[in-house]
Amino acid sequence: MNGPREAVIEPVLDDPVPLHIDHVRGDPRSALDRVLRDRLQRRLRGARRTDPEFAAGTAAQVVAFTLEGGKRLRSALAWWGWRAGGGPVSGPVARHALVACASLELLQTCALVHDDVMDGSATRRGAPCVHRSHEDEHRENAWSGEARRYGESLAVLVGDLALAWADDMLADALPGVLRPEAGRAVWRQIRTEMIAGQFLDIRGQATGSRSESLALRIDLLKTASYTVERPLHLGAAMAGAPPAVVEALRSYGRDVGIAFQLADDLAGAYGDTGTTGKPVGDDLLQGKTTLLLALGTRLARDRHDAARSEVLEQVGAGADPALAAAVLDELGARERIAEHCRGLAARGVSHLGGIDLPEPVRDVLTGLAGRLGEVE
Q1: Per-residue pLDDT, 25
Q2: Rg (CA), the chain
Q3: 3-state helix, strand, coil in the chain (%, to 5)
């Protein structure tokens, strides 16, 4: 009797990527997209040999989610960190660095898919979340068991596979960069901090916390570190950047990363679904511990405004998100958060003043902060 066929493991870096690596002297996103498409198509072929149904139901979803959405912000910042650290822009070493940077996109897939499960979100990027699409599949086929549990379970597997592939992609690339062990150390920190931030987010929501210090801690770990600071750090570390450059990039990343989250909080409360890709008011509906909500709650209490305090105390427990957003605006919390966002963006740029950076890197980082400095 024949046993199960052993899966063939396909090497990831057996052949050079067909990239014109010199082109990433400018915007690296097209090169990152080509790296991701090449690597993920290889992984999908391997998944089909493991099991065709698994490939169609889980692996293909990782590929589609990663390739069809996202702004490549984290991976691009990692590349700019590499450039800031003196890493080459062409040749085999640069190619390996680009692959390592691109692995952050798979980490992002894991984070978003799992985050949507934990938040019970309905849409992501204007389409049903992964868990919701599997719930619909379960119901349409009238399968046994609970549709919600099935959908959430498969979404967990999609996120887990994305994390595994991210680790694999980084591990394949690191031996070819200038300082592989330094890069690996930062990668460990990214993963742990991302999960710590998510833990604090969930705990704060469950306890109904209105702590401003907790909100800032969540912003630091869940967004600033993971989105800006550590991607820059990863690239710089892989290039063997001097300590002064690493510290300047990290300081920039912390301030601009928190500003990034504050701007996202404002967009989530006052923006539009067409821009955010998610229903406006979701964070207020769920009672997320945001600085916007924490600050507004304190302002209402300090002013002994019982009516507005009552509205904000009910956020996450049935309060109308639109009413809560209006109350926060009336209290001045919206403007204070926007002002703080602008101040952080300016301070972030100031950290770059004492270091030498290639002009493209300086232009990109000041441009990113500049857009945050226009938040209203």
Answers
A1: 63
A2: 22
A3: 75, 0, 25
Q: E strand or H helix at 124, and its extent?
A: strand 123-124
Residue 34: is its pLDDT beyond 50?
yes
- The CATH T-level fold of domain 221-376 is Farnesyl Diphosphate Synthase (1.10.600)
Tokens read off for 170: 């980084």
**What are the extents of the domains in the chain?**
221-376
Give the Å distances, CA to CA, from 39 to 344, 355, 367: 37, 35, 30
Q: What are phi and psi of 74, to 5 degrees?
A: -65, -45
Q: Which residues pair with 124 in a beta bridge?
A: 127
What is the rounded distance in angstroms from the CA atom of residue 115 to the CA atom of residue 112?
A: 5
φ, ψ of residue 124 in degrees (nearest 5): -145, 130
SS3 state of residue 127: strand
Residues whose CB is less than 8 angstroms from the CB of residue 334 and which lie 6 or more positions away in sequence, other chains included = 266, 269, 270, 292, 325, 328
User: Nearest CA to 234 among 33, 87, 81, 94?
Assistant: 81
Residue 130: what are its φ and ψ, rounded to 5°? Answer: -55, -45
List, as one string, the DSSP characters of 129-164: -HHHHHHHHHHHTT-SS-HHHHHHHHHHHHHHHHHH
What are 89-118's pLDDT values in tens digits?
A: 999 999 999 999 999 999 999 999 999 999
